[in-house]
């Protein structure tokens, strides 16, 4: 049973003699400094969070030490950190991310060969994390001055893709060929 009904009429907006839409209520002007504060407070929080995380990761990499080939130690108190890989505990094999902590520590301590041994893809990951410090600092600086943020767009997606492929490739090679 079909009923034919006429379509709903489209509401008409008030227009002036030239055809411009008239605004019923005046728009409140925002002071330029308030506008910058609003942009800064809403847009820079992500940059601040990533900057803080990157600084913490770099500081930990510089502070922590490696004992033997498996144990990460907090110096001064000589406290070994527990292994954190659940995959390795359950399956008994390393995951694509195994060795990243030791890789970061090795790079921070100037031992790139050891870093490569722990996780070759970790070197690229370290560069990405370290690069966040100046990049996020510049982004925050630009936002505070009312300038547009740099947009990485496809570059960021490409870099993330390369990192994922590198992590998986090194893992597959180590798991099945070494």
Secondary-structure blueprint:
Layout (H helix, E strand, L loop, with lengths): L31 H32 L1 E3 L3 E4 L4 E2 L5 H6 L8 H9 L3 H7 L2 H24 L9 H23 L2
Antiparallel strand pairs: 1-2, 2-3
Give structural notes.
Strands 1-2-3 form a 3-stranded antiparallel beta sheet. Helices cover 57% and strands 5% of the residues. By secondary structure, the protein is mostly helical. Helix 1 runs antiparallel to helix 5. The protein has helices at residues 32-63, 86-91, 100-108, 112-118, 121-144, 154-176, and strands at residues 65-67, 71-74, 79-80. The mean pLDDT is 86. It contains 6 helices and 3 strands; from the N terminus they run H-E-E-E-H-H-H-H-H. The protein is elongated. It has one domain (32-176).
Distance between the termini: 71 Å
Average pLDDT, rounded to a whole number, is 86
Structurally, the number of domains stands at 1
Instruction: Specify Rg, calculated over alpha carbons.
Output: 27 Å
Helix content: 55-70%
Number of strands: 3
Quick tags:
single chain, 178 residues, mainly alpha, 3-stranded antiparallel β-sheet
Summarize the structure.
The protein has 178 residues and is mostly helical. It is 57% helix and 5% strand.
């Amino acid at each position: 049973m079909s009923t034919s009904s006429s379509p709903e009429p489209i509401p008409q907006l008030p227009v002036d003699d030239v055809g411009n839409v008239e605004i019923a209520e005046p728009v409140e002007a925002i002071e330029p400094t308030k506008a910058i504060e609003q942009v800064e407070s809403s847009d820079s929080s992500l940059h601040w969070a990533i900057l803080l995380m990157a600084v913490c990761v770099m500081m930990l990499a510089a502070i922590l030490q490696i004992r033997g080939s498996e144990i990460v130690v907090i110096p001064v108190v000589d406290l070994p950190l527990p292994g954190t890989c659940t995959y390795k505990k359950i399956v008994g094999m390393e995951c694509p991310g195994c060795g990243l902590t030791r890789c970061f520590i090795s790079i921070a301590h100037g031992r790139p060969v050891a870093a490569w041994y722990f996780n070759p893809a970790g070197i690229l990951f370290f560069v990405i994390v370290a690069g966040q410090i100046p990049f996020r600092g510049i982004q925050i600086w630009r936002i505070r001055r009312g300038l547009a943020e740099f947009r990485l767009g496809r570059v960021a997606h490409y870099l993330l893709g390369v990192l994922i492929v590198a992590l998986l490739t090194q893992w597959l090679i180590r798991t099945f060929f070494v």
